[in-house]
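Question thread 4412

I'm putting together a teaching handout and wanted feedback from people who do this every day. The idea is simple: show students a protein as raw sequence, then show them the structure tokens that encode its fold, then repeat with a second protein so they can compare. Below is the first pair exactly as I plan to print it.
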Amino acid sequence: MAAELVEAKNMVMSFRVSDLQMLLGSVGRSKSGLKHELVTRALQLVQFDCSPELFKKIKEIYEARHSINTDLGQPPQQHQQPPPTHRPPPEALSLHSSYDRSSTVPRTALSTPNIDYPSLYGKYLNGLGRLPLKSMKPEVRLVKLPFYTVLDELLKPTELVPQNNEKLQESPCVFALTPRQVELIRTSRELQPGVKSVQVVLRICYTDTSCPQEDQYPPNIAVKVNHSYCSVPGYYPSNKPGVEPKRPCRPINLTHLMYLSSATNRITVIWGNYGKSYSVGLFLVRQMTSAELLQRLKTIGIKHPELCKALVKEKLRLDPESEIATTGVRVSLICPLVKMRLSVPCRAETCAHLQCFDAVFYLQMNEKKPTWMCPVCDKPATYDQLMIDGLLSKILTECEDADEIEYLVDGSWCPIKAEKERSYSPQCPILVVGGSTGGTLDVNGVPPPAPSTNGENGKVPADVVDLTLDSSSSEEEEEEEDDDEDDDVGSRRKRPRLYKKDLASAC
């Protein structure tokens, strides 16, 4: 049945407008519209309602067209070698150009065993499946994702075109996987239970040809694969008031809902039409892990220590226009991401600083939430720009008892020992009380000069007051204070109580 289905679709692809109208009219379908609309309508009819009667009708129309060519003296199409310029290469297929395949697909293509079925009938979106114009417009390009290695391009980024004035639009895409692609998926390892490393993913972005575009979902997006809906990443909760939650726009894995056989798959993108233009693409990819990217970086991304040393010299080179000469620069051996000692020091080649971060944690963080921003200077640091600092890697093995080093002008380095935490010592003067000749000691234990006995203006200096007296004094001290107050009733001011101990802090 699958072979008959493929044969029927290939026959439909070779029909002219009159043949398509005859086929659609025989089953009571609309015959109006452009050729690409008739082709899509006929292919959908074959895909979802291919009865024996319909297959017989398709074959009759196809054989009738072949017999007409024979009666006109033309050689049979199955023995006719098509000119090389008549059939465009499969990779040139586009969905936004004029479609006319009335004589481009020879009959011999129907029986070719190595035919690339997706290139013939697999790229239909919004009812469009056309050949390119002579003057091609710039194509939409998607940014390269380090964790996804593209194996095949199943559908080039294609614009989502509204079919009516409704806010909610549906755009279908029908395609089939080749046996080689199916085998790649089936034999790939599992990243986790039920998730293969080789996947068919859907990517969506803005329709902008000026530069490679990042993934961006349209409003109200939903993706249906065959007869089931595929889960789409949700929104990150926002902790700030008045800030809308953000949605992580990533490739959508469709593999677990697809037919891994020669049967065709139907993917429908449901999206909200609110003025902005979006494009979608389908790709066969191999998803990588942070450990695999780290191993690749260690293989091809290490910068030789001598080159790093030359970079240090360049940074510290004397600038004749500068009034201040830089004699050294400090570099921490602690990762700014996790506050742990560096294990694989790296930075982006575009960064102007010498400070490194740990490649292990950087890749793990971007695997969960890809931002690819340098944690030191907060500038883009993509995977292709990362390099491992060979000089700092060597220093890490030689310097195990320091958390910071200093690069010197000649490219050498020296460790900077961490200062030990100072034990607490009172910074205020220590009062020595308890005698008629009270005094203080400074922080070095040296007593200051003795004060005048007469004091200023002939007044007797007051005894030192204990400023650290606890509010919860003993009853004995309270009684002693009461006795002192009774003895000095006639005096205008009370005499301060003296602290009994020898030393006290003045602060």
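The second pair follows. I'd like the answer to focus on this one:
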Amino acid sequence: MAPQNKPDYSFWTKYKRFAGNEIMLYVIMVIGIILGIVIISYL
């Protein structure tokens, strides 16, 4: 059990670092979709 816990901690620390980038990517994607809908609706 002990050897398997250490990779989990490293995985979670890496995931927390990437989580911020994923959230930013999702926010940028949502903003892009909203801008696309607004532009299409005005056209």
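Top answer:
Good format. For the second protein you could add a caption like this: The longest helix spans residues 2-42. The helical segments are 2-42.
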